[in-house]
């Protein structure tokens, strides 16, 4: 039960990052990255914050935490999940560089083609439904 809960958070961290490297990374590279992020990086960072003996845990004795002596209270995992996903996404975007075809040879921005409004609405409803299923 707890394993599946943490697994869902780890997958969410990998999913946050996927938006920052979309259309620039091969699928096999994304699978390798996701395996590394969810198997090694996320468990270590979540231990730092959520474990009673983690260096940033609020449950440590007063004065022992390295974060101004108080530790971190992370409500519902939002801080750890979004921090891991956001930092990994930032590094991924910096390593990958801009999207191919986004800028011309002079460095000016090229307008992107239109997108499917139907797929945007479908994606919105899927996310909405998922949040109502996950959050309660």
UniProtKB/TrEMBL annotation:
Its main location: membrane. The chain crosses the membrane at residues 6-23, 30-50, 70-95, 116-134. One of its GO terms (molecular function) is ammonium channel activity. The keyword Aminoacyl-tRNA synthetase does not apply. Pfam families: Ammonium_transp. It is a multi-pass membrane protein. GO terms for biological process: ammonium homeostasis. It comes from the Eukaryota. It is found in: Membrane. PROSITE patterns: AMMONIUM_TRANSP. Keywords: Ammonia transport, Membrane, Transmembrane, Transmembrane helix, Transport. Residues 2-136 form the Ammonium transporter AmtB-like domain. GO terms for cellular component: plasma membrane. Belongs to the ammonia transporter channel (TC 1.A.11.2) family. This is Ammonium transporter. It comes from Eichhornia crassipes (Water hyacinth).
């Amino acid at each position: 039960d707890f394993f599946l809960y943490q697994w869902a958070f780890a997958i969410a961290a990998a999913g946050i990052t996927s938006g920052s490297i979309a259309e620039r990374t091969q699928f096999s590279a994304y699978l390798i990255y996701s395996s590394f992020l969810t198997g090694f990086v996320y468990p270590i960072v979540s231990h730092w914050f959520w474990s009673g003996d983690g260096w940033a845990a609020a449950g440590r004795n007063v004065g022992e935490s390295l974060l101004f002596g108080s530790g971190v209270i992370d409500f519902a995992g939002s801080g750890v999940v979004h921090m891991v996903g956001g930092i990994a996404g930032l590094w991924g975007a910096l390593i990958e560089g801009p999207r191919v075809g986004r800028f011309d040879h002079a460095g000016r921005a090229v307008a992107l083609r239109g997108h499917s409004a139907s797929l945007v609405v479908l994606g919105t409803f899927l996310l909405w439904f998922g949040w109502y299923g996950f959050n309660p």
